[in-house]
Amino acid sequence: MAMKKILLSSIFIVLIAAGNLFAGNADLFSYDKDELNKEFTNLSLLENYVKSNDGVTLTNLLAQNNPLIAGITVNNPLSSAIPFGEPPLGIGSFWWGCVFGVFGVALVYFVADDKDETMTAFKGCVVGYLIVIVFYVAFYVWIFGNAGLWAV
Hints:
Elements: H1 2-23, H2 33-52, H3 58-64, H4 93-100, H5 102-112, H6 115-145, H7 147-150
Helix pairs in contact: 4-5, 4-6, 5-6
């Protein structure tokens, strides 16, 4: 009974603490409706221009110094390739392999396209699986070692 009270008290304390941590982020999802409408109006104008002028590209608009693309950045990080030798999302390749296992190694292989980064992710994968195996063995040793204590 005492263990149940301790567990429920711990869960309650964690929930209270989590609520207090996230309570300060209330304005995180606020936005300026007028600014948003202005941006979409500019986007609609650009879309209409591209639809009416067949074959126009961003390169053409940049060469013309067209005011419709003012404020648009060309170096979009989502469209550019990851530099050679850089791990995905700036997270070390070892951790991709260690945390996500084979999936993490595959992700590093396809995204980073670097042999050294892939090997680092593979080493992380091996370490991750070894840690899991050690915990499973320790758990089963503990369970079967205490099996006599549970017999009634």
